Amino acid sequence: METKVVKIEEKNIDEKAAEALKKAGDVIKKGGLVAFPTETVYGLGGDALNPESSKKIYAAKGRPSDNPLIVHVYRIEDVEKIVEDMPEAARKLSDAFWPGPLTMIMNKNEKVPYETTGGLDTVAIRMPNNKIALELIRQSGGYIAAPSANTSGRPSPTIARYCEEDLSGKIEMIIDGGQVGIGLESTIVDLTSEVPMILRPGYITADMLKEVLGEISIDRTIIDSTSTQKPKAPGMKYKHYAPKGDLMIVQGAQEKVVEYINSESAKAMEQGKKVGIIGTESTKMLYKADVVKSVGSREDEKTIAHELFKVLREFDDEGMDVMFSESFDDSGIGQAIMNRLLKAAGHNVKVL
Ligand code: TXA
Ligand code: MG
Question: What angle do CA 199, 97, 331 make, to 5 degrees?
């Protein structure tokens, strides 16, 4: 299959762009797949109410079919049509954060096929904050099932070129809307438990949710690396976001971290290995390796969320054998950053 790539600027959806989005919508309505930008990461979209489309999504990603998909909507009325009933908490959260990087889990009704929910009676729903995505959903009939547009196990794509790398030849179309704004996947909150529970940390933090709901809990398995229990979001159990080389996170006082990483880097390079280091704006000049990259600034952790997956992908492209990364604060958006980084490193952490 030839994959068509169409460039659209979110800030400038002119007639030509609108026409292209209508065509992309037709592709989805007919059961085809289209990768598209959202504010978090690129999604791989198919008709959420068509079981055959969901099957195709799993096949294109190489994803286990017990890992449910997120259903994307463009207006709130459409949520009510696919759930048993919309809890009060969902109304409050959608008022506060939609369109935006928050996914809510509710009890589904018969309109949503089990192929889309990985056999579960619940459905994950989100309204993305990206004009291209919203228009595409509208043109597709209102419901797009979309996991991140990467091959299963690889870092989620934050630019269209990475969708092409993973999915070219396997899907009908890729919409290139430039680099995404946030860079990490949405926060997932389960509204079917008595106290709403965070199943995946993201840009919408626990504190932000608490402010709206009063009470919020978190699935401990996703922040405690020693937990042997199964995470409640099936996708969180898989090895995810994995770069091809070995990645180690080094934790401790900055001076010690720099010293340790430089000494390990020197050893690995002596053995003929290609070494990459993930530092920050204030430390990148202190490291010695084949490639040193800054992932952003500690003063503004949003910059780190924005760059993390891109840096991991770049290291893959540059063929790193060994990588070292600094560790980050585990609060606010830092919780999402560390959750993804720990997964990428397979929980390989050196504490100094
Ligand atoms: O930001 C995002 O959420 C992106 C963009 C494209 O919207 N999408 C995304 O989808 O990250 P995906 O498929 O890569 O991750 C979805 C996660 C998986 O961990 C899955 O197990 C969980 O959501 N999930 C989906 N439906 C669920 C449900 N009914 N119950 C529990 N977890 C669910
Ligand atoms: Mg994913």
Answer: 50
pLDDT at 220: 80
Residues of the chain with CATH 3.90.870.10: 4-223
If you measure from the C-alpha of residue 324 to the centroid of ligand 1, how many angstroms do you get, rounded to a whole number? 28
User: Bigger pLDDT: 270 or 236?
Assistant: 270
- DSSP for residue 308: H
CATH 3.40.50.11030 domain position(s) in the chain: 246-351
* Pocket of ligand 1 contains residue 145 by CB under 6 Å: no
Residue 174 CB coordination number (10 Å): 27
Q: Encoding tokens for residue 168?
A: 């070219």
- pTM score, two decimals? 0.95
Sheet holding 70-72, edge to edge: 4-7, 173-176, 34-36, 43-47, 144-145, 70-72, 122-126, 102-107, 187-190, 197-200, 217-218
Distance 126 CA to ligand 1 centre (A): 10
Pocket lining: 197 vs ligand 1, CB cutoff 6 Å:
no
Quick one: what percent of the chain has pLDDT higher than 90?
88
Which of 34, 36, 44, 70 is the best mutation target for the ligand 1 pocket, counting ligand atoms within 8 Å of the beta carbon and taking the most? Answer: 70
Fold of 4-223: DHBP synthase (3.90.870)
Rounded CA separation 224/201 (Å)? 13
pLDDT at residue 243 greater than cutoff 90: no
Higher-confidence residue of 50 and 244: namely 50
Topology (CATH level 3) of domain 246-351: Rossmann fold (3.40.50)
Q: 185, 189, 236, 333: which to mutate for ligand 1, most atoms within 8 A of CB?
A: 185
> What digits encode the pLDDT tens for the residues 148-184?
999 988 889 999 999 999 999 999 999 999 999 999 9
